[in-house]
Design goal:
Layout: H1 27-30, E1 36-43, E2 50-56, E3 62-64, H2 79-88, H3 93-100, H4 104-128, E4 136-145, E5 147-159, E6 169-173, H5 194-210, E7 217-222, H6 226-232, E8 240-245, H7 259-281, H8 296-313, H9 326-329, H10 339-342, H11 402-430
Parallel strand pairs: 4-7, 7-8
Antiparallel strand pairs: 1-2, 2-3, 4-5, 5-6
Helix pairs in contact: 2-4, 3-4, 4-8, 5-6
The structure holds zinc ion.
Length: about 425
């Protein structure tokens, strides 16, 4: 895959040439244009370094070297790889803020930027994949957003041999199983499986595009009936071979596994390993945590960051001293990438083959220069708020005073707006 080896900001200003116009509505953004010319420079407030500016010959608008860097508009660019590594090492935002000596809101903002970058990078990786020549193991990872009534299943598909992780797909539902707030045995019926069926269909559509023409896609899954439902009316159902491994009844912990259990564990190992890693390395998916995700786009975006980490940074096996990453196994990269390389260049949504369902994850829209668009500023991250299940999370309101009251009112209105956005997004995902 064509990718910078060194971050854009480390290129000497005299050597740097913008590869295209960064403005999305300019013809030179997608196609080869008449080029960009030097247009002065500015001094970076951070280190007084001169950053060259350029002017597009097609649209007449300007940009700078920093426009093409992942660290555009950041006062502390060094925080970005550190936050990425910390998030994948199981730290929550506040813990990271303490160790990196920055505000926790900075970590939240950077996490959002990293998530957008991961979504675009995953789209680039999937566009560059060779034709699918292995079976794909699929299962849902169960988590929740805000409170346990808002359960969220993340559909995860993993290449059986390469262990390449495909983009996760959310299936928001009401939650089933035993919960302290529900009387025993009143688990929600499987009527809610519509969310799973929709999510499986979306994943199937993407995987079928990667399978070579005229060949069948082998999908390995557990015994969930939603796979058969998703395939029933699917126009390309004939191209999918479903290998179901129902979860067998197991004895008490430590008892020997039955033959069926061994076969199921062997077939589902790639996706089981990913789910263990998600629980182990992501603070928001740990059991009984107060670091749970506050909004669906944030949780799914973080899942994309884990996906990119698993594909490009981390070796395939946790036990063996084999440093081969899934991307290396598929011939996309030649070596494991450090975080600095993952963040070596900025990706632009207009230039990537992005599935429609991934677009809402890109968050606030920014201009190529990095300044948030005025209309988008209202969609700032969810402030900590009173959760439906009674958890009080985050900072309480400061002591009295007119200012504090005004601030609290502003937060409440932003929180209402965000909740209504999340609701509409959930219905959009399920639609
Ligand atoms: Zn232009």
């Amino acid at each position: 895959m064509k990718w910078r080896t060194k971050p854009v900001e480390t290129v000497r200003p005299s050597r740097f040439r913008p590869p295209f116009c960064p403005w999305p509505d300019c013809p030179a953004h997608h196609h080869r244009g008449r080029g960009l010319i030097r247009y002065g420079s500015y001094s970076r407030a951070l280190d007084r370094r001169r950053v060259p500016r350029f002017r597009c010959r097609d649209c007449g608008r300007t940009c700078s070297q920093q426009t093409f860097s992942c660290t555009y508009f950041l006062k502390r660019p060094g925080l970005l790889p550190a936050v990425a590594a910390g998030l994948q090492a199981g730290s929550a935002h506040r813990q990271l803020a303490r160790s990196l000596r920055c505000a926790k809101t900075s970590v939240t903002r950077l996490a959002r930027r990293l998530a957008s970058h991961a979504v675009l990078l995953q789209a680039r990786l999937e566009a560059e994949l060779p034709p699918l020549a292995e079976s794909v193991v699929h299962d849902h990872f169960e988590s929740f957003v805000g409170c346990q009534q808002q359960a969220l299943a993340l559909g995860t598909a993993v290449g059986a041999r390469s262990r390449f992780v495909f983009g996760p797909d959310p299936a928001p539902h009401r939650g089933s199983g035993r919960r302290p707030d529900q009387p025993d045995g009143s688990a929600a019926p499987w009527a809610e499986s519509a969310a799973y069926v929709t999510s499986i269909r979306r994943s199937l559509d993407r995987l079928l595009r990667l399978a070579p023409e005229g060949q069948r896609l082998v999908l390995v899954a557990d015994g969930r009936s939603d796979y058969r439902t998703a395939l029933k009316d699917h126009p390309a159902a004939k191209r999918v071979e479903l290998k179901a491994h129902p979860n067998p009844i197991r004895g008490p912990k430590g008892s020997p596994r039955s033959k069926e259990a061994i076969a199921r564990d062997r077939a589902m190992a790639p996706v089981d390993q990913l789910h263990q890693l998600l629980r182990h390395t992501c603070a928001e998916h740990k059991r009984e945590t107060i670091a749970f995700g506050r909004s669906q786009p944030a949780v799914v975006g973080r899942a994309f960051l884990t996906t990119v980490w698993k594909n490009l940074v981390k070796g395939r096996s946790e036990r063996r001293p084999d440093r081969t990453t899934p991307a290396m196994a598929l011939g996309l990269t030649a070596a494991p990438w450090p975080w600095e390389r993952v963040l070596a260049q900025r990706l632009f949504p207009g230039r990537e083959a992005l599935p429609d369902s991934w677009r809402p994850l890109l968050g606030t829209r920014t201009s190529p220069e990095g300044r948030p668009a005025a209309a988008a500023s209202a969609a700032e991250p969810a402030p900590p708020h009173q959760q439906a299940c009674g958890h009080r999370v985050g900072r309480g309101d400061q002591a009295g005073g007119v200012r504090a009251a005004a601030r609290s009112a502003r937060r409440a209105s932003a929180s209402r707006a965000i909740r209504s956005i999340s609701r509409s997004k959930i219905s959009a995902w399920n639609g």
